[in-house]
């Protein structure tokens, strides 16, 4: 699938190219890291202010008790599905074009879920009482309520953070050995410990392959369960507009949708930033574009099914919520439908669009704006327009919520920038493996590439 | 003790393995060090390719299921709080917690099993060959005595090894 | 052979479960925090000896802590009550002179609190006394203490233990409201 | 206490509110505020809709001008028997007592606000800031119940401190609780006597008798939350 020259580069040169991001930091890198750090610091200040003064500094209010924090939580958990799902599915289906994207996607999963896990904590009225959630014997003689969907959330996110971190680490093991052999001094010691003495013996490789397949198979049901449970935070309530059976699959698809769009954005940025055009080619964009198209169709179908049943059933309270959404948040509703469906589906049908970097960047960012809007529309309007008309209200975030949201994006960026500086951002061994398995045969007048079967 | 010969490419390394076997070195003592996984038999045949990884995953899964169930249902039993005439142990939530812990422990079991089967982490008693990650191919032979080590060293050099590294104390 | 392997496998699984559950169930002891880090036996402004009064002289607790049976709080006696005896008894001792000074200046004695429950925990003394839970069950043998010392943990688990033992209510709103 | 026992508990507290008697004067709101240490949030926060009343008078207009009538519904926590707020609380801060009350334990609350979202009546209020009482209101804080801190959810408790006291007194006197032993602040202060509180498990209690009225209804009954607050509305006078 790659469009590389046939003359084979030496492994050493390829390593150097793929690890270019780990070279001494450029001024641009430092400026970027500092800028992102500053935004994170500003967000931390805003949170500190909220901790000291109380949640009133945020825009949440009766009746909209959940606001931007939960929207962000759902959004970031959704993004985190990209990585692991994409990489696990591609691993399991032996898609050969997957190799260069794997690492970026898996790292993204870990960082987005880390950012996501911050939000329930920020959202709490008394964040310092977080240990009340953890089941351990205490002097209070009390346990958390396992009936609450929030507790399922804690358990699921915990599983997902550990699982996806291990998945990332496992995939990195041979690459850490590559880094180890290129470093000197203290760095060498650190990477030696991280690489655990990996040498690449036949046995290590065999077990490694089996383990990654097994992990990929295990992580998919976890990812599905995580976003199902996030959806149940809403679906298990009595709130009209939330209490819907379609929510679990709808959320999972939405999560994969925004996740894949985020992977596309990230790949485009990475290949530009670290001159990885050679490894992340338009061919990859083309394939990712096809996946995005399929998921976009799926998402649109789910949304259509949800609205259709609401409209056709015409239960007064449900319909009131829906019309309220259209009235009060019509612009956002339009933005969501345009971003997720109207632009994405027609555009991605064209090969030229899928292979064009700027077009894909535009679409993928627009999809994520659409998906953020979708989360807003899920969380806010049903709360604002509940059973008792006397308490109908609205919601708008304050600068505190906006700052913390900005800090979340910056924090994710910062984690990623640091990661790309200190860890191999391209799955080196996987790329080498792809090269090694591809041999070239003369067939008549042409040289064609053949794939050796993978183990 | 271990002897590692570094070869420029796959072909010479493959020939070296053949030479070693012809010189009556046990095939199970030979392994390859590569930057890329090659299918079984490209360089060496492993004698025992059975893997118990799935059992680690399964064992982890069962332990996780028991833990999850013990945590959700067990603690509800130990510290009962009666809320609105609902049963103490409610099955659906317990099922969800059980599921999450099953998956978590299955993943932990897989990683644990992987390191056990790989024999990692291993820092001592192993010859590290940094050339391998740069695309060279290493052929590692375990040997019992110093004499044998010298013999194998000669064999590897004759087969075209650019460099031979020795070390390790275990057989 | 096959059976041995299965047994080893199952043993391993059970061991892993047991270890995890043990760790979870014991986290509370690993990270144990006492309910209160205050001094267990703080110095008091006046060296009042419970051993002397309640022990040797045999004055009943409720003679001084008068509201215990009828109110939520046991009540600390006012200076007048102290003085009602000490106007005559041992009036020339230096400690009693200190006491008299509070009376003359019209100030309450700033006793240092030994048993303090958090503001959100409500402990009605009268319900406990009338249910037959006497002072010493929580406060220890005060009649043997010169200076009162806190002997009970006063944390929620400690309360609950007793409530469970005596089948008293363990409803949250019994104590928190 | 097991399930059967709590089903047959001696007390099941409930309230009957006669809407035909309610004048919408708001005395209950003030009484509740004073009795329960409910903070007064001040002008700014109040205009933002962050007032903390545990009971509020909902006013609806009926008919078209000039034939307009105001309708009032005093709305407080309905103490649902099948309360939606309870199972969603991750820490059991919201829980059900064996006497049919919907409990809220402030010191356990971590402030997820999940219960408030799931309450169809929006009866729960949240401490967005650390509560402050301007002089001289700070001198009237009741020592019988907690002063809540910021980040904590709170709501009507049917004046649990009065229920506790009534039950304690009755217990010390060795008799069951009588109808007049426990009167919540709102019922006590209601001039037209629209609010009646009582033990629904006792067929002799006034609340129970009123609750059998033909005019009875409960709010959002189709949701199946089984509220313990029963409203009376018919237009005529009270008919038992």
Nutshell version of this structure?
The complex is a heterotetramer of chains A (455), B (171), C (177) and D (240). Chain B is an alpha+beta fold.
From the spread of the alpha carbons, the general shape of chain B counts as: rod-shaped
Q: Given the structure, what is the number of helices of chain C?
A: 9
| Radius of gyration of chain B, whole Å | 25 Å
CATH class of the largest domain in chain B equals Alpha Beta
> Total helix count of chain B?
4
Kindly state the mean pLDDT of chain C as a whole number?
Answer: 84
Helix/strand order of chain B: EHEHHEHE
Q: Number of DSSP strands of chain C? A: 0
Pair of chains with the largest interface and how many residues each contributes: A-B, 62 and 62 residues
Question: Distance between termini of chain C?
Answer: 63 Å
Task: Write up what this structure looks like.
The complex is a heterotetramer of chains A (455), B (171), C (177) and D (240). Chain A is mostly helical and 455 residues long. Chain A has helices spanning 11-18, 27-53, 68-92, 102-123, 149-182, 185-195, 202-235, 247-273, 282-313, 316-328, 330-342, 344-348, 351-355, 357-384, 399-422, 428-437, and strands at residues 438-443, 446-451. In chain A, strands 1-2 form a two-stranded antiparallel sheet. The longest helix of chain A has 34 residues, at 149-182. Chain A is globular and about 75 Å long. With 171 residues, chain B is an alpha+beta fold. Chain B folds into two domains: 2-48 and 122-167, Alpha-Beta Plaits (2-Layer Sandwich); 53-118, no CATH class. Chain B contains four helices and four strands. Chain B has helices spanning 10-22, 53-78, 91-118, 146-158; strands spanning 2-7, 30-33, 137-142, 163-167. A four-stranded antiparallel beta sheet of chain B has the order 2-3-1-4. In chain B, helix 2 packs antiparallel against helix 3 (91-118). The N and C termini of chain B lie close together (5 Å). Chain C is an all-alpha fold. Chain C is built from nine helices and no strands. In chain C, helix 4 (79-86) crosses helix 5. Chain D is α+β, with helices and mostly antiparallel strands and 240 residues long. Chain D has eight helices and ten strands. In chain D, strands 8-1-10-9 form a four-stranded mixed beta sheet. A two-stranded antiparallel sheet of chain D has the order 2-3. In chain D, a hairpin with a 5-residue loop joins strand 4 and strand 5. The interface between A and B is large, with 62 and 62 residues.
């Amino acid at each position: 699938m790659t469009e590389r020259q046939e003359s084979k580069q030496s492994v050493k040169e390829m390593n150097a190219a793929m690890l270019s991001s780990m070279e001494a930091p450029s001024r641009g890198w430092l400026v970027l890291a500092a800028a992102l750090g500053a935004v994170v610091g500003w967000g931390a200040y805003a949170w500190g202010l909220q901790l000291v003064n109380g949640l009133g500094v945020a825009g949440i209010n009766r009746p909209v008790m959940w606001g931007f924090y939960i929207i962000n939580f759902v959004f970031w958990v959704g993004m985190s599905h990209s990585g692991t799902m994409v990489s696990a599915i591609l691993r399991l289906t032996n898609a050969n074009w997957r190799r260069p994207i794997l690492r970026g996607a898996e790292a993204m999963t870990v960082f987005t879920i880390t950012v996501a896990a911050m939000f329930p904590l920020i959202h709490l009225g008394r964040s310092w009482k977080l240990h009340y959630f953890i089941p351990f014997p205490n002097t209070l003689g009390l346990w958390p309520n396992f009936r609450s969907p929030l507790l399922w959330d804690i358990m699921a996110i915990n599983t997902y953070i550990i699982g996806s971190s291990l998945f990332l680490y496992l995939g990195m093991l041979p690459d850490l050995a590559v880094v180890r052999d290129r470093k000197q001094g203290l760095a060498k010691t650190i990477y030696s410990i991280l690489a655990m003495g990996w040498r690449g013996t036949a046995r290590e490789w065999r077990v490694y392959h089996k383990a990654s397949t097994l992990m990929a198979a295990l992580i998919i049901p976890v990812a599905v369960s995580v976003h199902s449970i996030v959806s149940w935070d809403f679906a298990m309530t009595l709130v009209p507009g939330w209490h819907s059976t379609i929510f679990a699959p709808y959320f999972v698809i939405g999560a994969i949708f925004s996740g894949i769009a985020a992977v596309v954005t990230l790949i485009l940025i990475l290949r530009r930033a670290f001159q990885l055009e050679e490894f992340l080619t338009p061919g990859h964009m083309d394939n990712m574009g096809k996946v995005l198209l399929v998921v976009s169709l799926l998402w649109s179908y789910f949304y259509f099914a949800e609205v259709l049943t609401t409209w056709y059933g015409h239960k007064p309270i449900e319909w009131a919520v829906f019309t309220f959404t259209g009235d009060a948040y019509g612009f956002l509703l339009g933005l969501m439908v345009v971003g997720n469906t109207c632009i994405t589906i027609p555009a991605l049908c064209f090969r030229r669009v899928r292979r064009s970097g700027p077009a894909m960047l535009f679409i993928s960012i627009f999809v994520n704006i659409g998906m953020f809007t979708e989360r807003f529309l899920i969380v806010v309007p049903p709360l604002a327009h509940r059973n008792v008309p006397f308490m109908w209200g609205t919601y708008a975030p304050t600068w505190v919520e906006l700052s913390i949201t900005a800090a979340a994006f910056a924090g994710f960026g910062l984690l990623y920038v640091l990661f790309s500086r200190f860890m191999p951002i391209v799955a080196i061994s996987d790329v080498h493996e792809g090269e090694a398995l591809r041999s070239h045969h003369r067939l008549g007048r042409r040289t064609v590439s053949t794939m050796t079967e993978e183990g | 003790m271990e002897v590692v010969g570094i070869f420029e490419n796959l072909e010479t390394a493959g020939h070296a393995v053949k030479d070693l076997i012809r010189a009556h070195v046990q095939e199970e003592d030979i392994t390859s060090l590569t930057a890329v996984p090659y299918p079984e038999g490209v360089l060496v045949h492993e004698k025992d390719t059975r893997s118990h990884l799935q059992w680690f995953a399964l064992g982890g899964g069962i332990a996780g299921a028991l833990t999850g169930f013990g945590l959700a249902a067990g603690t509800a039993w130990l510290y009962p709080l009666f809320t609105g005439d609902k049963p103490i142990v409610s099955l659906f939530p317990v099922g969800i917690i059980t599921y999450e812990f099953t998956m978590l422990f299955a993943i932990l079991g897989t990683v644990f099993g992987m390191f056990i089967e790989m024999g990692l982490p291993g820092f001592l008693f192993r010859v590290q060959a940094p050339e391998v990650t740069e695309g060279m191919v290493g052929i590692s032979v375990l040997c019992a005595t110093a004499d044998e080590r010298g013999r194998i060293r000669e064999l590897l050099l004759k087969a075209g090894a650019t460099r031979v590294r020795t070390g390790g104390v275990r057989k | 052979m096959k059976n041995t392997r299965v047994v080893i496998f199952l043993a391993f699984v059970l061991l892993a479960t047991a270890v995890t559950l043990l760790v979870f169930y014991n986290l509370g002891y690993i990270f144990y925090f006492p309910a209160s880090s205050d001094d267990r036996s703080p110095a008091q402004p006046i060296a009042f000896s419970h051993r002397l009064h309640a022990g040797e002289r045999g004055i009943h607790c409720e003679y001084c802590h008068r509201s215990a049976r009828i109110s939520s709080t046991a009540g600390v006696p006012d200076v007048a009550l102290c003085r009602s005896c000490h106007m005559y008894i041992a009036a020339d001792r230096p400690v009693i002179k200190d006491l008299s000074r509070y009376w003359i200046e019209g100030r309450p004695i700033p006793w240092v609190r030994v048993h303090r429950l958090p503001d959100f925990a409500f402990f009605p003394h009268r319900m406990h006394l009338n249910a037959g839970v006497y002072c010493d069950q929580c406060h220890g043998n005060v009649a043997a203490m010169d200076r009162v010392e806190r002997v009970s943990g006063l944390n929620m688990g400690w309360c609950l233990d007793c409530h469970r033992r005596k089948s008293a209510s363990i409803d949250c709103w019994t104590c928190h409201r | 206490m097991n399930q059967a026992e709590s089903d047959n508990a001696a007390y099941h507290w409930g309230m009957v509110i006669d809407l035909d008697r309610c004048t919408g004067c708001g005395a209950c709101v003030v009484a509740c505020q004073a009795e329960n240490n409910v903070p007064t949030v001040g002008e700014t926060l109040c205009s933002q809709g962050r007032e903390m009343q545990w009971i509020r008078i909902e006013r609806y207009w009926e008919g078209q001008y000039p034939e307009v009538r105001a309708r009032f519904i005093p709305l407080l926590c309905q103490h649902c028997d099948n309360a939606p707020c309870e199972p969603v609380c991750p820490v059991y801060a919201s829980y059900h007592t064996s006497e049919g009350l919907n409990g809220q334990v402030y010191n356990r609350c971590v402030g997820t606000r999940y219960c408030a979202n799931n309450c169809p009546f929006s009866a729960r209020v949240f401490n967005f800031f650390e509560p402050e009482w301007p002089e001289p209101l700070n001198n009237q804080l009741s020592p019988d119940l907690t002063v809540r801190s910021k980040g904590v959810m709170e709501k009507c408790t049917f004046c649990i401190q009065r229920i506790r006291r009534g039950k304690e007194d009755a217990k010390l006197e060795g008799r069951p609780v009588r109808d007049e032993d426990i009167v919540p602040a709102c019922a006590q202060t209601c001039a037209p006597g629209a609010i009646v509180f009582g033990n629904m498990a006792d067929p002799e209690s006034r609340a129970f008798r009123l609750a059998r009225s033909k005019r009875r209804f409960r709010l959002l009954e189709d949701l199946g939350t089984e509220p313990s607050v029963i409203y009376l509305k018919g237009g005529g006078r009270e008919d038992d």
